TrEMBL record:
PANTHER family, per the entry: F-BOX DNA HELICASE 1, UVRD / RECB / PCRA DNA HELICASE FAMILY MEMBER
This protein's record includes keyword Hydrolase: yes
One Gene Ontology MF term: DNA binding
Catalytic activities: Couples ATP hydrolysis with the unwinding of duplex DNA by translocating in the 3'-5' direction; ATP + H2O = ADP + phosphate + H(+)
Keywords of the record: ATP-binding, Helicase, Hydrolase, Isomerase, Nucleotide-binding
Organism: Pseudomonas syringae pv. coriandricola
The protein's name in its UniProt record: DNA 3'-5' helicase
UvrD-like helicase C-terminal domain ranges (all copies): 336-415
EC number: 5.6.2.4
Hydrolase keyword on record: yes
Organism domain of life: Bacteria
């Protein structure tokens, strides 16, 4: 959404700037206002299918998410994520998969039923409905430009490819960040095989120093074409100067955003949260804190009380399913015994406009497409992309995220310990290669 707003300020009035979800909402999403939710909850799915088998519930959620992200018009075996890497299945596995697929179809039917409130309609759900309707945009537009083409779900790529109007796709394969959600590189899809290609290897956002850091990171992906920084000279430092009028911190995780905000709130900062402070689940976190302290009368989202018998069950389910959001919430609650007071301070210090902020906070994922004068990388990028134990796909994902993060800065970039380590390893590698 932030990128959409930035684009509206740059394109002329005859250009309509929309997210794919924005197009879909006007047609389908608005019909589900009464039952919308950000994502599918394991507890809702378990209740809908009447089970306490959390592995089954997790498989149904992942299968439905895979279907909604795909270009396919029907839910099928290919969407069953758990066995996607299996060449052959045992009879027991086949039986389990058929059961899970049938239950997933039931859940989908309940989701799209406007009158059935047992399963909420997600944003990806109404986008899927829109794509399944195979809309014709030629009545409204003469051309369609797909930005971030390296990082779109097949469902969005299909929405563009079926149009009978001029299509332009823009992207950078090194900025693919959402492969874990099923995103694909539309730039290299079969539909683009005969497309006219133009390469842009120059950036006027930053100068040579930031370009050097970016090229070091990309070198570990085997990139041979260097990125040129043709903007104003950019400084690369270990820390941002203390007297800046505004600074932006980029984080690997949402918990990192919250952790840093809790650190900054006592320094009289006015903080802008990209996407809005409410999109960082602080209310849910506060409710969970009260739940963990047996203060159920303080819980506003009463659904939490019906979903879990007690906080101990919440912890058990989090560990059983390895749900990252649940595990992240548990960690924050353990680290901050005065969490409600701290959250109150965060809300008081929050502003909606960067014009009023002294600090902007966001994740590196949300920062894609945006830029700021002074950018610092927070030290929660814990996964070492150069570890010999990491698989190639995960390595590229983490390197891409670092590349996106460092290229957001226009004047000063403050690198974290991971980037410093990568730069040192690059230097050592160059030294060893000398004759």
């Amino acid at each position: 959404k932030a990128v959409e707003m930035a684009a509206k300020n740059r394109f002329p009035r005859n250009v309509t700037c929309k997210t794919a979800h924005g197009l879909a909402y006007a047609v389908y999403g608005s019909q589900y206002k009464h039952k919308q939710a950000g994502n599918l909850r394991l507890t809702d799915i378990a209740r809908t299918i009447n089970t306490q088998d959390w592995e089954l519930a997790k498989d149904i959620v992942s299968t439905l998410n895979a279907f909604m992200a795909s270009k396919d018009l029907e839910l099928q075996e290919d969407h069953f994520v758990r066995f996607q890497s299996n060449r052959t299945l045992t009879s027991v596995q086949q039986q389990y998969m058929r059961k899970a697929l049938n239950l997933t179809r039931d859940v989908w039917d309940k989701m799209v039923d406007i009158k059935d409130r047992s399963v909420s309609m997600t944003h990806d759900g109404y986008l899927k409905l829109y794509q399944m309707s195979q809309p014709d945009l030629s009545q409204r537009f003469g051309a369609i430009l797909l930005d971030e083409g390296q990082d779109v779900n097949p469902v969005i790529a299909n929405l563009v490819q079926i149009q009978k109007i001029t299509q332009v796709t823009v992207g950078d394969r090194h900025q693919q960040l959402y492969r874990f959600r099923g995103a694909v590189d539309a730039l290299n899809s079969p539909a683009m095989r005969d497309a006219e290609k133009h390469f842009l290897t120059q950036s006027f956002r930053f100068g040579p120093a930031v370009a050097y850091v970016a090229n070091v990171i990309l070198s570990f992906k085997g990139e041979k074409i260097p990125l040129q920084g043709l903007g104003q000279p950019t400084l690369v430092k270990r820390a941002l100067p203390v007297d800046l009028p505004h600074r932006t911190y980029l984080h690997r995780t949402v918990s990192g955003v919250i952790e840093n905000a809790l650190r900054l709130v006592n320094q009289d900062h006015r903080m802008q949260w990209i996407g809005g402070i409410d999109s960082y689940s602080l209310r849910d976190l506060e409710d969970l804190f009260y739940f963990s302290r047996h203060m159920n009368d303080q819980v506003q989202q009463r659904k939490l009380l019906t979903d879990y018998a007690d906080y101990d069950q919440y912890v058990v389910i989090a560990k059983a399913t390895q749900d990252p959001e649940m595990l992240r919430s548990i960690k924050i609650i353990e680290n901050y015994p005065d969490l409600p007071k701290r959250i109150e301070q965060l809300r008081a210090a929050s502003v909606t406009s960067e014009l009023d902020a002294t600090v902007t906070l966001t994740t590196a994922h949300r920062a894609k497409g945006l830029e700021w004068d002074f950018v610092g990388l927070y030290d929660d990028f814990s996964a070492d992309p150069l570890s010999p134990d990491i698989d190639a796909g995960k390595r590229d994902d983490e390197l891409n995220l670092l590349y996106v993060a460092v290229t957001r800065a226009m004047k000063i970039l403050s690198v974290n310990s991971l980037v410093i380590d990568i730069m040192q390893r690059f230097k050592d590698m160059k030294q060893r290669s000398k004759p």
